[in-house]
């Protein structure tokens, strides 16, 4: 009976409209799907589809929030991991992400990849809390910058967002320092896990031309492309196992408070700014590892934060 059912299914597949299309046309259609979960379903349709899906060159997927109190069972049981992630990454993202990544690592032709992660490192923080971070990196994290303004105004003086009533600002400065200090370290922990993942991605996807990892709250982003990606690829392919698995963490930290920061390029004004800067020890004594922000954005507010990073660094080191 099973053989009859199987034959009927194959016969139906052979008579479907898709069966009349050449592989090249199907690939063009599938390439427009982009979403990794949808591609996973296509991969399971048939042997022909699975071979075509493996040729896609653009992928995007969102990793859902993982509740530690709920078992994470959303996995693909028939896909064995090609290489286990370090415990730090595995514990942060859950089994469903690891299963998705294992499927992703099979798509050796991927050239463009975008991953959106939940803001896992600071789940207890109110989403209205203002902060963003930026990082400069290659095969290691060179510097990490965290910035949290009390309030932000556009060039017309309109308040875009804030961490509280302006008249309360002076009362919360000291408490803000402690809170933001803790959040900045949580974000750095996130960045370290992301960077570990990013190095694995570059190692597993040889055709990659651009990759971006961001979080659902748009707090920060790690991205590689162009010469920067080429440089990282060369290191990944030449590094020993010990070098590849070594995790280096910025150890030199400074922080401060800027009451008012006017940003001439964007026209934005930020008030009550806490900033934290962490650097590798071999970069101590200068701002070479902090300037020339590489992850520029066309978003006006993000561009204003980028300008604020550079202005804050100038105020700190000059």
TrEMBL record:
Listed CDD domains: F-box_SF
Residue span(s) of domain F-box: 18-53
Region (Disordered): 297-318
PANTHER family noted in UniProt: OS05G0510400 PROTEIN-RELATED
Official protein name in the record: F-box domain-containing protein
Taxonomy of the source species: Eukaryota, Viridiplantae, Streptophyta, Embryophyta, Tracheophyta
């Amino acid at each position: 009976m099973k053989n009859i059912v199987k034959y009927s299914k194959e016969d139906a597949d052979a008579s479907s409209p898709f069966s009349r299309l050449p592989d090249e046309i199907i690939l063009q259609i599938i390439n427009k799907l982009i979403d990794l979960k949808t591609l996973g379903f296509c991969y399971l349709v048939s042997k022909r589809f699975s071979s075509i899906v493996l040729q896609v060159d653009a992928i995007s997927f969102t990793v859902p929030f993982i509740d530690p109190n709920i078992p994470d069972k959303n996995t693909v049981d028939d896909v064995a991991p090609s290489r286990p992630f370090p415990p730090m990454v595995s514990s942060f993202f859950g089994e469903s992400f690891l299963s998705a990544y294992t499927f992703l690592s099979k798509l050796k032709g991927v050239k463009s990849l975008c991953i959106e992660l939940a803001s896992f490192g600071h789940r207890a923080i109110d989403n209205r809390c203002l902060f963003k971070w930026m990082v400069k990196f290659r095969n290691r994290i060179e510097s990490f910058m965290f910035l949290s303004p009390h309030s932000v105004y556009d060039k017309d003086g309109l308040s875009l967002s804030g961490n509280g009533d302006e008249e309360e600002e002076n009362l919360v400065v000291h408490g803000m320092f402690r809170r933001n200090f803790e959040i900045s370290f949580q974000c750095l922990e996130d960045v370290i896990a992301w960077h570990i993942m990013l190095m694995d991605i570059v190692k597993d996807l040889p055709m990659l031309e651009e990759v971006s990892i961001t979080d659902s709250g748009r707090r920060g982003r790690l991205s590689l492309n162009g010469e920067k990606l080429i440089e990282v690829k060369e290191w990944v392919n030449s590094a020993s196992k010990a070098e590849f698995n070594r995790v280096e963490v910025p150890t030199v930290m400074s922080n401060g408070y800027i009451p008012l920061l006017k940003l001439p390029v964007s026209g934005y004004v930020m008030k009550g700014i806490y900033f934290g800067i962490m650097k590798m020890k071999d970069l101590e004594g200068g701002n070479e590892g902090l300037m020339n922000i590489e992850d520029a954005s066309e978003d006006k507010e993000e561009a204003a934060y980028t300008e604020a990073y550079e202005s804050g660094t100038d105020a700190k080191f000059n």
